[in-house]
Amino acid sequence: MKKSLKERLAILSDAAKYDASCASSGTTKRDSSASGGLGSTEGSGICHAYAPDGRCISLLKILLTNFCIYDCAYCINRSSSNVERARFTPEEVIWLTLEFYRRNYIEGLFLSSGIIRSSDHTMEEMVRIARELRTIHNFRGYIHLKSIPEASGRLIEEAGLYADRLSINIELPTDAGIGRFAPEKQPDNIRRSMGNLRLKIEEMAEPTLQTKRRRKFAPAGQSTQMIVGADGADDATILGTSARLYGSYGLKRVYYSAFSPIPDSSKTLPLIKPPLMREHRLYQADWLYRFYGFDIGEITSGQSDGMLDLDLDPKLAWALGHRDRFPVDINRAEKETLLRVPGFGTKTVKGILSSRRFRRLRLDDLKRLGVSLRKVQPFVVCEGWTPHRLVDRSDLRAMFQPKPEQLSLL
To answer: Which UniProt keywords apply (predicted)?
Structure first.
């Protein structure tokens, strides 16, 4: 019996929750109000998440189908899984996107898919959806396509003409892990596709000789997703792989997806505890590497097993392990030093550097910048405040660790 559109939407939107890389920050701003058409984009991002100003940003996040010819051990939609299957036609995805937008439910589309028939066939249908939304319906909202690395370069290049962002999943942190748990996927093919996509993005970003204008091709760049906890790789290995990906392929973002064992799995996979907190710490460490000047080795050197501390955020854990670097005088320290103070974000540091040109800063000034004084007091010196030997206290770590919580049996 054929499932209704509503039933298939429930199945395929639920199946898409395992795709993590769906932010759109970095795309070009488009507005249909002046030029006609449908939809618009905002640089702050689209996904079921919150923008910096607190707005909830939404998109239609679905799979074209959860049928798949591959049997990746960590994937809920693998060919040997007994999940309920469903499939959309390209026309149905287009209709859903337009109707959801007209009802103000979404601001864009995030589309992924299992592999059906072949990589080229699946990619061709996804490209067709994006192409018709843009060229026939003049849809100007955000579009993110999960590209298939085994698909032809021609199809991936065409996808970049219509999508704001393309992503190609690296799958697992190591080639050995991919070979063990996803043997039908080839790491060399994945990296080759990511490299070709980077070259195309850079090529299209160059101004043309005739018009001096830059052509639009995946303006929000490319990202990737990495499954965390399926192959036993430690956090140092995961973050080292991410650093190489950022450097080699110009990625906008590596997304970490915590693995939990699939109940009906016929393959035994190790579980690294606890998956969601580990995912959160990896995102924090990734942020320190990209925006705070930390090396991966610095972030992961705190524990001998190559894992991040789950009880403390990575910057605080680093600071407690390098107490000789503190306290920092906020009225004199350089930007690079201030960025390493626990509790200071990039906006806080910018505010400190701007404000101290006019006066010497006190704790009250930090409070007005939104800083948690409890977190920073042991690590800073400012006008009217010195921590004395607070940073040397033997129980300083215990002050920041989460308190034990009594769990209910009901």
So the answer is: Iron, Iron-sulfur, Metal-binding, S-adenosyl-L-methionine
Of 157, 152, 151, 143, the residue nearest 198 (C-alpha) = 157
3-state DSSP percent of the chain in helix, strand and coil, to 5: 40, 10, 50
Angle between helices 90-102 and 5-15 (to 10 degrees): 90
CA angle 309, 311, 315 (to 5 degrees): 60
Beta bridge partners of residue 329, listed in sequence order: 381
* DSSP letters spanning 215-254: PPSSTT-EEEEEEESSS---HHHHHHHHHHHHHHH--SEE
Instruction: Tell the burial category of 270 from Cβ atoms under 10 Å away from its Cβ (0-12, 13-18, 19+).
Output: exposed
State the Cα–Cα distance between residues 117 and 103, nearest whole angstrom: 34
d(CA 34, CA 37): 9
* Apex 272 CA angle, 24 and 194, nearest 5: 35
- In sign, the C-alpha dihedral spanning 226, 229, 235, 241 is negative
Q: Which of 17, 16, 19 is nearest to 169 (CA)?
A: 19
pLDDT tens, N- to C-terminus, the chain (410 residues): 788 999 999 999 888 888 875 554 455 555 555 555 545 544 333 345 433 344 455 889 999 999 999 999 999 999 999 999 999 999 999 999 999 999 888 888 999 999 999 999 999 999 999 999 999 999 988 899 999 999 999 999 999 999 999 999 999 999 999 999 999 999 999 999 999 999 999 998 887 666 566 678 999 899 999 999 999 899 999 999 999 999 999 999 999 998 876 554 455 555 445 688 999 999 999 999 999 999 999 999 888 899 999 999 999 999 999 999 999 999 999 999 999 999 999 999 999 999 999 999 999 999 999 999 999 999 999 999 999 878 888 888 888 887 766 555 55
> How far apart (Å, rounded) are the C-alpha atoms in residues 56 and 187?
36
Q: Which of 273, 272, 313, 279 is nearest to 294 (CA)?
A: 313
What residues does each domain of the chain span?
Answer: 5-219, 314-400
Residue 93 CA to its chain's centroid (Å): 24
Distance CA 220, CA 26 (A): 5
